[in-house]
Amino acid sequence: MPYYCYICKTPITEGEYKYSNDVFGKALYRKHQDMERETSSPQNSHSNEPPQELIKQNTKPIKGSESKIGLKVIVKKLAVKTGQVIKKSVTTVTDTTRKAIQKRRWKDKILMTLEPKLIKQLAHENRIHLELVDKPTNNDYINAIKNDVSLDNIIAFAKRNYVNIRDVLAEIEELKIKEDNREIKNDGSAIKDFYKQVVEAIKLFQPSGSYENESPYHMQLLGYLKGKFPNAKIGSEEYRLSSRPDITIDGIAIEVKGLTGDRELEKIADKCLRYLQSHPKGMIIVLFNISASQYRYEEWLKNMNKQYPEVKIISK
Questions:
Q1: What is the mean predicted confidence (pLDDT) over 45-51?
Q2: What domains does the chain contain, in order, with CATH numbers?
Q3: DSSP H helical segments within 27-115, as ranges?
């Protein structure tokens, strides 16, 4: 009976076949046996042995009875570091699972408020067909939609059909604020750096012309920012109740004004109060075509910097 290497299909002897099966659990040619040994050797293995670099970083030459104490210190440090990595991994998996369960609960809550004809319309729009189900019920469609349609699409459909889902939106907003605050606490420096990047990008933006209303400035700035920050979007696309800034980028609120007169300046302070509560990662105000007097603008800017020092104001 001929024998062949599991990897390269090279003919091997009966002795090689029996040896490799006993040692490696599969038939291997001698070259691949050597490669398997190298892969499974201590320096290449992913065992639980402490990395040598880490031991070097945490030790110094020790003698006599001190060696036992030193070893205990090393083991303790390694255990702490390993525990931190494991804890972080478990936390990530747990958070992902929790978010998936929460999203499904929100889906169910919204779908249960829709009339059967809207459920069928939503299923049709998302190409959900239940041909294999004999006489599908409304619950059959709901379960299929929960499995195949994203929460964002379900919310958009409900809003488009004027279905009251304020309770769900309020829960989403509350959770989003908590997540933003937790992210700031865990990685505040990175968020500050990203905020600065957005500010610098806006400073470089120039509109294609001068306009008498806000819309052209808004849309041009949004298009420009999306080219640099793909997650930039119209604030109304965020599912928040208390506030909808003109543009958002990963939790940062951007308010656009133009033509900017006295009336527009007066409204900004109130928006800062609301947006900073719902967007703790930061807020940026962009003023185009300022028509207020120089004195009025400087007084307003002075008061704003005093009342909301964390808000960056950019005038164009």
A1: 45
A2: 3-47 (no CATH), 188-315 (3.40.1350)
A3: 30-40, 52-57, 66-111
